[in-house]
Amino acid sequence: HDEDTVDEESKRTQLDDVRENPEGQRLTSDHGVKISDTDNSLKAGERGPTIMEDFHFREKMTQFDHESIPERVVHARGTGAHGYFQPYDDPDLGEYEDISELTKASLFQDSDQKTPVFVRFSTVVGSRGSADTVRDVRGFATKFYTEEGNWDLVGNNIPIFFIQDAMEFPDLVHAIKPEPDDGIPQASAAHDTFWDFASLKPEITHMVMWVLSGRALPRAYRMMQGFGVHTFRLINEAGDSVFVKFHWTPKYGTNQLVWDETQKLAGKNPDFNRQDLYNVIEAGYEPEWELGVQIVEEDEADRFDFDLLDPTKIIPETEVPVRPIGKMVLNETPDNFFAEVEQVAFHPGNVVPGIDFSNDPLLQGRLFSYQDTQLNRFNSANWDEIPINRPIAERHNNQRAGFMRQEINQGKVSYKPNSIGDDHPKETPAAEGGYEHHAEKVDGHKIRNRSDSFQDHFTQARLFWNSMSEPEKENIIDAAHFELGKVDRMEIRERMVYDLFNNVDHEFARRVADGIGVNPPEEPGDELPDHDEADPSLSILNRT
Ligand code: HEM
After folding, report:
1. Is 174 considered catalytic here?
2. Which of 75, 82, 247, 457 is catalytic?
3. What residues contact 87, with CB distance under 8 A and at least 6 apart?
4. I want to staple 165 with a disulfide (CB 3.0 to 4.6 A). Which of 257, 361, 363, 433 is the partner?
5. Burial group, residue 144, by CB count within 10 angstroms (0-12, 13-18, 19+)
6. What pLDDT, in 10s, does the model give residues 501-520?
7. Which of 206, 369, 389 to mutate to test the pocket of ligand 1 (most atoms within 8 A of CB)?
8. Residue 74 Cα, ligand 1 centroid: separation in angstroms?
9. Helix (H) / strand (E) containing 295
10. Residue 453: closest CA among 325, 270, 341, 309
């Protein structure tokens, strides 16, 4: 490719410009004045009070006092690494000859091209200082610094989600976070509010099955699958669109910890997963994933017994195979955790030409939420100028000013139309690489609703349960006993068994009921028992 093309090193070269190395340097103030003594404050007399004019003391302390920024409202705890993405030379695309038949995105076109990436892995519920090995979903967010701008694939290690509509997200997170009165528990689902919410929300059933499984206890970040979860669109040069699901498959295989290990590790080394990623890369290993796609033609979208726009559903691989299209390699640890891992800001709305959204109502809401929360996290709209977030592609526009603006924009003109700014940034037609949203035909009434096609909450949960081996089933049941055994209110335990699990699998529901003091359902379709029949010996005193 020509010299302007982005390559693996281009993001690192850009970051090198702002890397500061203290080796062999003189200590200075923030304004470049050499400092003679950084241990003793300026005093009036041998044993006197500190003097206000001590600019070095004030600067050093002020900077320290302002070191912390808000943690992410979810996914607060994580770690990250640099690497690259490279498309395969001759991917097996089934009926399609070439990936360019499906998408015009530049990062997929040339198998010699390595696009730089930064990946952040995270837990979801716990705060920044919580333990790594808790039962939780893991975030798997990738920023591709492409020559056409940044593309963020902000995924998780489980291919589905808890809820179907973004409107429910604040409720989900309020239910799953530590309880508001006592702030307990810090990072686990084992409490009343989460299971109360779950037991009243049948759409959560499929996700709960995954969360009770070993998927929620990954052995290492390099041993996790990743999923875009939502259905997205790929768009080719002609403007044609297909639906797509994205899959990351780890070369190290998908591995989990067992419950006992997670409990001990949370005490002995709460950084277990973060340290593993750092150590293996520092030791010269290069964790690798294969990127795969499931492709569905637009006119095929109706052939499934679930809705492609429903994020609580997978597309079974027996129906649509996953086609590998490239690999991602992580080969460099960050230099500075705060500057890179803490300040990286992903946003599902960051797409490049060739990739577009579907109408999945969860995805649609995410397109608003990330930028909004980042305004809170960075206290400025200029977080996209921070080195880790800055694209390699050139940026020119009329956006101006704001807290901590880094760019020095030149000239009189920051508006359009204008007659005095000859070299003013010009728009680019779609045919020449300008982003254009897919011209999907939309027609309907303005309504708040849940489509009928989103109403089957149990078929895929059952599919998941039936795909488990007996030891895996036992692990899920043990997890349900532990989690629900910590729920004080008997009616919540009962609703989980009767309203959710008994609709997944009768035997499963009975086995869960047995371990948590709930009368096992007699029949698959049993109604909730009369509440008085529940075992009164189960109370807060039984919590362990
Ligand atoms: C982080 C909102 C669903 C994956 C976040 C953050 C917010 C948020 C506010 C914090 C971002 C920041 O401070 O930079 C939402 C909303 C959702 C939703 C409103 C649903 C309506 C999902 C889903 C996935 C996901 C379905 C996976 C496909 C992530 C990841 C992060 C994150 C990986 C951490 C990014 C990082 O490492 O910085 N989400 N989220 N979220 N979300 Fe979501």
Report:
1. no
2. 75
3. 99, 107, 108, 109, 110, 111, 113, 325, 326
4. 361
5. buried
6. 999 999 999 999 999 999 99
7. 369
8. 7
9. strand 288-297
10. 309
